[in-house]
Amino acid sequence: MKLRLIAIFCLTILTLKPVFAEEGMLIPSLIAAFENDMKAKGMKLSAADIYSVNSTSIKDAIFQFGGGCTAELVSDKGLLLTNHHCGYGQIQAHSSLEHDYLKNGFWAKNLAEELPNPGLTALRIVRIEDVTAAVLAGATSKADQATIAANIKKLVAAAIAGTHFEAEIKPFNYGNDFYLMVKETFTDIRFVGTPPNSIGKFGGDTDNWVWPRHTGDFSVFRIYAGKDNKPAAYSQDNQPYKPLHYLPISFQDRKEGDFTMVYGFPGTTEQHVVSEYLKFIIEKERPARIEMRNQSLAAIDAGMKASDLTRIQYSAKQASIANAWKKWIGQVEGLQNLDAVQLKLDYEANYKAMAISKPDWAKYAVAQQTLNGLMAEGTKSEYNYAVGVEYFSVGPEYFKLVRGLEDLMTNYQKYEANNELESVIAKVQASADGFFKNYNAEVDANIFRALTKLYLSYSQQELKGTTLEDLTISIYTKSIFTDAVRFKAFLDGFGAKSIKKMQKDPGFVHFYQFFTPFRNEVVPAYRNFQVEVNKWMQVYVEGKYIMFPLAKHWPDANSSLRITYGQLEGSAPTDGMRYTEHTTLDGIITKYNTGNPDFELLPRMLELHAAKNYGPYAQGNELWVCFTGSNHTTGGNSGSPVLDKNGYLMGLNFDRSWESTMSDYLFDPIRCRNIVVDIRYVLWVMDIYAGAKHLVDEMTLMKE
Question: What is the pTM of this model?
Fold first, then answer.
């Protein structure tokens, strides 16, 4: 029986009290079902203003940025805002000791100064369509993957025929429903501006995932298109993109209780997991990954403090590793404080009682019991997979260079026979140049020591014929993969004998000694486990919709475009604690005065604060910096626009509070808050702080 994602939810809104509209990540094409509730909370827009296929709508101003964040258009010249941490890789790539944009910021004075970013994309959703019936047509069951795959292939081809668009069909609710996403992807995205780290990363690891927050987490890019205004590869002849819609800027005063809507591409939530799995996450999987990142960050932080060059080389890497690390710490703490496992057990008892009340529902009880049984044994494969990912993908960096030579090693004879060897080696060398630009062997050796020790312990393996210290010294003094000069010399004389030499290299030998069983045994076991889990989760989730039709249901986030709405409001997450709904520039100065290096400021900020030079961007006597909302967000919502009742841009979503990080598994509307940088602070930084008023002048400021 096909599940309806939203209809039941709408019925709930109309019939149950109280309803927390803040929970849930809603599919934009179905937003009409929520229009009345959203208007009751203050919204002045219509559903068609938010999402429309037949006319322009807010949807057309929202872009997936770089595949992992959200961005929004704010001018008729393709000006794009996203978070500072979303653009950090590009900011770091353009930085050097001579042009330290990380420390000092960067602002292009005109179009000619805007910098290209090879590989960076911005993706717009053209339309979303429920294709469940068509995907399942002719299938013997939802497990008939051959028929489903064939149907999907035909539907995707038909959706993009005669267009420059792309398309994909995503499963929702573990394959109970399917939606077609037609997309337009732009590939010429240029770097326009960024504040210095003292603004864009103000608070550093100290403030990450916590409130109160004072981070100016924004960066500025621009979409360029061909002369026909369609996506085009980078060219000096390209012109700024002329959007179908861009967001006006909300310049009205804010107050607690104001309507807020977040529109973006949330990554992943797992609200349906069973109690045994949640217990595994809290007690085993997260603690292991946290400790591995503890060790990586200790090595990286020490290197960054010792050298400006290392600081530039590792800034983006450190930020990426630290972000998930601190989130996981808060996630575990939040789930424990909320007694999440017991809440799951209570829910499962009610679920089982309902399932055994009717013969037709017995399969749902079987699914629940089977899932909890699978977790007891199957999570061993997930644990081995998780610690392997941390080691091989997030651990010692030279591993990436080893993997980069797999193709050359495997296809050497073919490349030589086809006279392609020289060009292939040139590409490998170019990639290696980029790698070594941001590589420090001493830092990597310290990561290797610490993480290898942990990985051996967690995976219950051991080194053979050597000690960890001797192995570390050998790899970082002899391996071709840990030194730019050695690697270049190796490639310069590359031939048939080079492969044999490489296979004796200590770095190569160590990597493949452990990566080969991980790839050949651990990864397949993990995938098989996931297939089995997903099969039963499909039934289990179906049971939720069938047996509890008046409960609040919404599909897990899966990087598709979603909407969540709530209010601008503070919170009282624990006994005796009350968080106000906004922070101001005064709070930045207070934190700076503590002397914590995460609160370092450049002199101009102090000067402007002392002079109270807030320009037209203040509210009363205050310059708002950040505020919180009761919107349900997750990773991927970074950079998402936070819109007011009129659809004007209030700010950029960039984080959640410490008490909210568990919301990927369990959302608590009383505790969970998303954190937003106020757009007026963003414009103050551009205009008053940085002197880039020409960018503000591109925007439409709505003061009434």
Answer: 0.89
